[in-house]
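Hi L.,

You mentioned the student needs an example of a multi-chain input paired with its predicted structure. This one should do, with 753 residues in total across all chains.
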Amino acid sequence: MEAEKNLYTVSVYTENNIGLLNRISAIFQRRHINIESLNTSASEIEGVSKFTIVVEITEDQMKKIIGQIEKQVEVIKAYFHKDEDTIYQESCLFKIKSDLLFDERQIQNIIKESNARIVTVNKDFFVLEKSGRREEVELLHRELSVFGILQFTRSGRIAVTKDAMEISKMLLAFNN
Amino acid sequence: MEAETIKNTQKSSQQTERISGSEAIIKCLLAEGVDILYGYPGGAIMPVYDELYKYQDKIHHVLTRHEQGATHSAQGYARISGKVGVCIATSGPGATNLITGIADAQIDSTPMVCITGQVASHLLGSDAFQETDIVGISTPVTKWNCQITKASEIPEVFAKAFYIAKSGRPGPVLIDITKDAQFEEFDFKYKKCNGIRSYIPVPKLNNASVEAAATLINEAKKPMIVWGQGVSLGEAEAEFKAVVEKAGIPSAWTILGAGAIPTSHPLNIGMVGMHGNYAPNVLTNECDVLIAIGMRFDDRVTGNLATYAKQAKIIHFEIDPAEVDKNVKTDVAVLGDAKESLAALLPLLQEKTYPEWHQKFKDLYATEFEKVIKNDLHPTKEGLTMGEVLKEINSQTKGDAAIVSDVGQHQMIACRYANFNKTRSNITSGGLGTMGFGLPAAIGAKMAAPEREVISISGDGGYQMTIQELGTIFQQKAGVKIVVLNNEFLGMVRQWQQLFFDKRYASTEMVNPDFVAIAKGYSIDAQKVTKREELKEAVAKMINTDGPYFLEVCVEKEDNVFPMVPSGASVSDIRLE
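Structure written out for the whole complex:
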C-alpha cells in the first residue's frame, strides 16, 4: 500500500551564504522529489534567511528530509507544516494590452471582483497584481486569458505559521 | 552589520602580521596541528606549494601519484589516528579527482579537510583553463564547503573547516581558494573555532531516554548489541566495553565498528551484514531487544527492512538525529555522543549474563564453522584460500596489526577473519565500497602510526585501480606491507554472476601483469606465493622486512564468500553455501 502524499510547506531558517540553496535543493533532487515552489527571503531576524519550500510527499519522507536539511551546518532550524497550520499566499503579475481595458468592459469587472490591483498603466499595456491562494490566482488567470495576456508570472508560496518558531530564542542560547 | 555567527572563545595570542594568503593557509594548518598533508601540485595552487617549500621543516607534504590517492591517504591517516586528514590539489581535474575520496569520507564519517586551488576570481565562470565548479560538484558529498576569493577570509574559513570536519559526526570539508586570494596580502590573525550558531554537533543528552533504554535492557530476556563506528569515532571504547560486560549482552559489529572491543572478547559474537557471521544475522530476528550503538542500519547490514528485527524493541544510540528512524523505527532513541551516553547508561544497568541465549550464538557459530570457516581457514583442497592468508597474518602479527583492505571478496574475508586487538585497526571503505581505497589509505595509516604494523590487503582488481601509489611508497619510504590476494577475477562480481546471473562472467576475468616485477620496479622487495607450504615463510619475511614489502598470494580462482545474505533477502535467510 502506498502511503498518502500531502502538500507540505517547509520553512528553513539559515545563514545567508552562497551555495546553501544548492545544498538544500540537492537534498530533494537526490531523492527524486520535485519542488513545487521555492522562495528565499529575509526572515524576521536580521542576518537570517528563510527558505519557503512547497513539496508533495509522504509524511515519512517529509520527516526524513527535515532531518537531512537540519543536518546542514548553515541551517539553523527547519519546520514542516500542512496547509491548515499556515497562513500562505502567492503573488502574480499580469501584463495586458491597455486597449482591452476600454474595449472589453468585462475586464474592469474581473479586476474589481478579484481584488486585483493595477500597478501601472501606460498607453500600451497595464500591469495587474494579485495576491492570494493558488485557486484565486488561477481563476483570475483563466478569466483574463480569454482576452489575451502578454506576460504572466507567479511567485512561489510564502507562508507564516500559526505556531511560534522561536528562532531568536535558539540564537540567543548560542550567544550565551 | 555582519552577524556574529561563530564562537572564538580562545583569545588570539598573536599580533597580526601582514602576509600572503598562501602563507596564511600554512599558518592555519600549523595552528590546527597539521604536520602532514597529501597532495598534487598544479597551476592554481602553486602559490601554496611555494609556501610549503619554505615551511617544509614544519609540515610534510606527501606527493601522491594521483589526487584520488591523496584523499585516500588522508582518510587512512584520519581513520587510524582520529585526527583530521588533509589533502590538497589544484583546480579543475585536480579538484575533480578528489571527489571519490570525499564521497567515501562523507559516507564513512571520516574527518578530512580538502584544499583546492581555483582560477583567479575575475575568471570565475569564464570557462578559464582548469576551471571547474568544485564547490557545486562537491556540495552533495561534503559536510560543508566554501569558496574563498579574498585572503582576509582564510583564517575564519579554515578555523570553521577544521571544527566542522572533526566535531559531532565527522565528515569531509572542502575549501576552494582562488589564485588571487593566495597572492593577496592581508593582516593575518588566527583564532580557533569553538562553535557555530547554526550547527549543533552533539545533541544534548536526554536523561529520560537513557533511563528508558536502561529499563528496556534490564527487562530483556534475549538482548543483542550491534555497534558501529560511532563507538570509536566517539572515543567511547572503554565506556562501551564496560556496558557490554556489565550487561552481559552478546555484541556484534558492523564492518566499520570492528575492533572497538577485541575480536577475542567473549561477548564479541562477530560481524553482522551481508557477509557477516551466521549467528548474529540469524539471531537479529530472534532477539527481544536490539541495541544499536553508533551505527546507521545500512542496507548491507539490515537486508530486507520489512523482515528486520520486527520482533524486537529497538534502542538506537546515535549522534546524528537524521539517522534515527531513517531505516529502522526505534522504540527508544538516545541522541548524543557515544562516550557520554554510554557513561550515563552504565550505572543504570543491572549486572547480568544470558548463558542460554549466549549459547545459541555459540551453537550457530559451530554450524558456521562446520560449513564455512573450517574450509576457509583449514582448507584441504589444493588451492590457497584467502582465509588461510588472514589466519597466517593473524598468527604472525598476534592481532596487533592494522588491516587496511580494499573492496571485494578479500575485504569481506579480511573483516571476517582478521583479529583486532586494538581499536581503529580495521581501515576499509565501508559505505561507498571504493575499489582502490586500500593501498593509498595504508600509506596514510602508516604515516600516522609509524609504530604500528600496517598491512594493506587488496584483490588484484582494486590494487590496479591505485597501483601508481607504489611510487608514493617508494619515494616516502613508507613501511607499508602490501598483500595482494590474486584470484585473477573481480571476485565479488564474479560470485554474483555465478549465483544470480547463471555464471555469465561478463568482464570479470583479469589478465594480470607481473605484480612482483612492478613492485621491484619501485625497489620494493617482493615475492609471489602459489603453494600452501610457502605461505608461512613468506608472511614471516614480509613482517620481518624493515620498510615496504609486496606479497602476492595466488588463491583459488572461483572461491565464494559465505555466509551471504542475498540482496533483498532477510538477514535470517542467510545462506551458508
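You could point out the following to them. Chain B has three domains: 6-196, 207-361, 378-554. The longest strand of chain B covers residues 112-118.

Best wishes,
N.
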